[in-house]
Design goal:
Elements: H1 15-26, E1 38-43, E2 46-52, H2 62-65, E3 69-73, E4 79-83, H3 89-99, E5 108-113, H4 117-126, E6 130-137, H5 140-152, E7 155-158, E8 163-164
Parallel strand pairs: 5-6, 6-7, 6-8
Antiparallel strand pairs: 1-2, 1-5, 3-4
Helix pairs in contact: 4-5
Length: about 170
């Protein structure tokens, strides 16, 4: 007589979940406590590049000397504050790929939140085909980025209903 045992089957993450987990790990390298986020770029199930929020090479970090806050007037007349000391994760991942001669055309970019307008322009111009964000971003910049992706034919998906809001905005 054979004995039947119950075995807990290991459930492998989807490729989107896998690359988002790597993005989450990379975010621990961020050097600005306002937005510890990161980005990974993958193509054909292969990781091509990573980036995280951080100051340009050789420059001081927010975590070491504080933020470089600037006030920005939004389209709707409201103002918000942004740290200008660091480069965004998406820009850093694209720059890392370029620096090492890694082609990212047709790749998927995984990030913490809807990319800002400037990063969206870099994403479109670099030929990235798909963007997967963990959450949406507050403010008009997210809407502009989504419209830009739509116009450029870049597939865009948000995995959760959460919105990223900074305390000092």
């Amino acid at each position: 007589m054979s004995k039947t045992t119950s075995v807990n089957k290991h459930i492998r993450p989807s490729w989107d979940e896998y690359f988002m987990d790597i993005m989450e790990a990379a975010s621990k390298r961020s050097t600005c406590d306002r937005g510890r986020s990161a980005c990974v770029i993958a193509k054909g199930k292969v990781l091509l590049s990573t980036g995280y929020v951080g100051s340009p090479k050789g420059m001081p970090h927010c975590d070491d000397i504080g933020h470089l806050m600037k006030e920005v007037i939004n389209d709707d007349g409201t103002s918000s504050r942004h740290c200008m000391r660091t480069a965004h994760a998406e820009a850093n991942a694209i720059a890392q790929a370029a620096r090492h001669g890694i082609a990212i055309e047709g790749a998927t970019l995984y990030c913490r939140m809807t990319p800002c307008r400037n990063c969206a322009m870099l994403i479109v111009n670099s030929g990235i085909a798909r963007v997967v964000a963990q959450m949406d971003y507050h403010g008009s910049s997210a809407a502009e980025s989504k419209e830009m992706f739509k116009m450029a034919g870049v597939e865009f998906c948000i995995l959760t209903d959460s919105k990223c809001n900074y305390k000092d905005k």
